[in-house]
Amino acid sequence: MKFFIVTSLKEYQDDVCKIFRAANIHVFSATDVIGFKDSQSPNLLADWFASGDEKFDSLFIFSFTTDENAEHALELIKQYNEENQTPFPIRAFIVPVDKASY
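Given the sequence above, the corresponding structure tokens read:
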């Protein structure tokens, strides 16, 4: 099992949902986040959002899924980013799940 995590601008929500469907990920959760970067202090998220004091309406979408589905979704997101060349690419992460309560 993998924990598949995606962050993107809110405008890309429909595209991310299409990617999840294409990767056979039908159960997921999403939450709104506001991303920002204050260039005056060091930050662990320094490369996460664009520089400056701007704020961005973003999404944090995640799912517990199979290894195959997570890998497929990651490849689809890489392909999406290559084809769209946006300054705000969709970011995806695959995190292994060592144990679960069920």
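The first helix runs from residue 13 to 22. Try to locate this feature in the token string yourself.
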